[in-house]
Design goal:
Helix content: under 10%
Protein name: Glycoside hydrolase family 130 protein
Family: Belongs to the glycosyl hydrolase 130 family.
Oligomer: single chain
Shape: globular
CATH topology: Tachylectin-2, Chain A
Largest sheet: 6 strands, antiparallel
Organism: Allofournierella massiliensis
Strand content: over 45%
Keywords: Glycosyltransferase, Hydrolase, Transferase
GO molecular function, one term: hydrolase activity
């Protein structure tokens, strides 16, 4: 497969992003939604910020709170030596300590969404301030991993909205990436990795989603239908995990980029991880009139973490996409590398087709 990583990779790094306030540090800019708007390529980037601590023994956690009717960002301080009941070993999360690690107590960073613009798809100018800030009601622990679906002249942005109640999926719309309208939660916790098809199919909107059952079942892909993009039902299991202990897709599967239509059917770029949390990308070919029907799929990854900037970072061995563009005969994938930077890879569409096996 002729995989062409952009020679300018990484395109956007934490050092390129101005923190939203002086006492914050940008830990990562990654997992961006992608769209074309007028003559520009728009990336709606997830920007993760932490609050700067004063010592190695201190972890300061930003959260959104409502103070007398106004949302504001507060900072909770944990002194590690005073909390032996907590596990601070994961750079992303604070857990209950113990032999069986407990539930998440807090995330160590707070993510917001920020627009980056480019006329050539390579050199981006990123906004100096957040484009969309998390709200205390729906995302007090942050907003993550946006996907952008254009329907007519409206861009629908679904994203993971995180609170202590769990990660849900919420929806925002815009016509210009300047003004944004919130539509609230569309998939309750724990459900994430949602991608909405860019047109109705059989008179209904359709979306992939990834519920995470805690007792029976695993983190796998489902399909849902909606008459209005708000109310979703007719859920149907789409694709499960590999049972092979050596496979790249035996840990979790979901999300990826918004599907795009070709003369062969819908192409869906998706992500999967193995049991060691190594994330790769694959592709499905789906029936044009019934996307629940898989026509073919790539058995091996079309992109896996091999470059240094993909193997090393805030959370290494990760390539993770939320959006792509079909540019002529190439699929242009913008992806998060190692959970802290944004990169680009171009892959000929025919090469993806050639790598697929009929199901």
């Amino acid at each position: 497969m002729n995989i062409k990583r952009c020679e300018k990779n990484p395109l956007i790094c934490p050092s390129d992003v101005k923190p939203s306030r002086p006492d914050f540090k940008v830990e990562g800019v990654f997992n961006c939604g992608v769209a074309r708007y007028n003559d520009q390529v728009i990336l709606l980037c997830r920007v993760a910020e932490s609050a700067v601590g004063t010592s190695e023994d201190e972890v300061r956690v930003p959260v959104v709170v409502n103070n007398n009717g106004t949302d504001q960002i507060d900072v909770i301080t944990f002194v590690k030596s005073e909390h032996p009941e907590l596990d601070f070993s994961d750079s992303r999360e604070i857990h209950r300590a113990g032999a069986a690690r407990g539930k998440i107590v807090n995330l160590t960073s707070l993510s917001h969404l920020r627009v980056a613009r480019s006329t050539d798809g390579v050199h981006f100018e990123i906004a100096e301030q957040p484009s969309i800030l998390p709200s205390s009601e729906e995302e007090s622990w942050g907003m993550e991993d946006p996907r952008i679906t254009q329907i007519g002249d409206v861009y629908y942005i679904n994203y993971t909205s995180v609170t202590p109640n769990g990660p849900a999926t919420s929806l925002i719309s815009t016509r210009d990436f300047e003004q944004f309208t919130r539509h609230g939660v569309i998939f309750a916790p724990e459900n994430k990795d949602v991608t909405i098809f860019p047109e109705k199919i059989g008179g209904m909107y359709m979306a992939f989603n990834r519920p995470v059952p805690s007792a029976i079942g695993g983190p796998e892909m489902w399909l849902a239908k909606s008459p209005d993009l708000i109310h979703w039902g007719e859920q149907k299991h789409f694709c499960g995990l590999s049972k092979d202990s050596e496979r790249w897709d035996n840990g979790r599967i979901g999300g990826g980029a918004v599907p795009f239509l070709t003369d062969k059917g819908w192409v869906k770029i998706y992500h999967a991880a193995d049991r060691n949390n190594r994330y790769c990308l694959g592709a499905f070919l789906l029936d044009k009139d019934d996307p629940s029907h898989i026509l073919a799929r790539t058995r091996e990854p079309i992109l896996q973490p091999e470059a240094e900037y993909e193997r090393n970072g805030f959370f290494g061995n990760v390539v993770f996409t939320c959006g792509c563009l079909l540019e002529g005969s190439d699929v242009v994938i913008y992806y998060g590398a190692a959970d802290d930077k944004i990169c680009r890879v171009d892959i000929p569409l025919q090469d993806i087709f050639d790598a697929m096996e009929t199901v």
